[in-house]
Design a protein that fits this description.
This protein is mainly β. The protein has one helix and eight strands. It is 5% helix and 58% strand. InterPro entries: C2_dom, C2_domain_sf.
Length: 125
């Protein structure tokens, strides 16, 4: 894998599965290459179709081949999982860019708990 800088823009989400009994979700996303170095978006209140337009930067080292997106519904003092998606960085390294909707598959991958629109650009160092 090449070394360099990965710029990730979390644009928006759509059709998030609603976990709340009253109202809609308060979604946010944790994104990471390694679980111990997570970055996160702001929480968008009361929507299943949030818009973030937030940009994050990751330094890519040897051996890093997947970026993870964990989507949560923020509740008072807690968080409920809406879904998780991931993208193989090979898709980004090959073209230098990535602009797609990433599905959040359910536990067995049979249904989908929503999608997030992700744009990534890679600059080799």
């Amino acid at each position: 894998m090449p070394k360099g800088t990965l710029e990730v823009t979390i644009v928006e989400g759509r059709r998030f599965k609603d976990n709340d009994t009253v109202g809609q979700s308060d979604p946010f996303i944790e994104l990471y290459l390694h679980k111990k170095y997570k970055q996160r978006t702001a929480t968008v209140s009361n929507t299943n179709d949030p818009v973030w337009n937030e940009r994050f930067t990751f330094n890519i080292d040897e051996g890093e081949d997947t970026i993870h997106f964990d989507v949560y519904d923020e509740d008072v003092g807690d968080k409920d999982s809406i879904g998780s998606g991931k993208v193989k960085l090979k898709n980004v390294f090959d073209d230098g860019k990535f602009d797609e909707w990433v599905k959040l598959p359910a536990h067995l991958g049979i249904s989908v708990h929503g999608e997030i629109h992700v744009i990534m650009n890679f600059q080799p160092s």
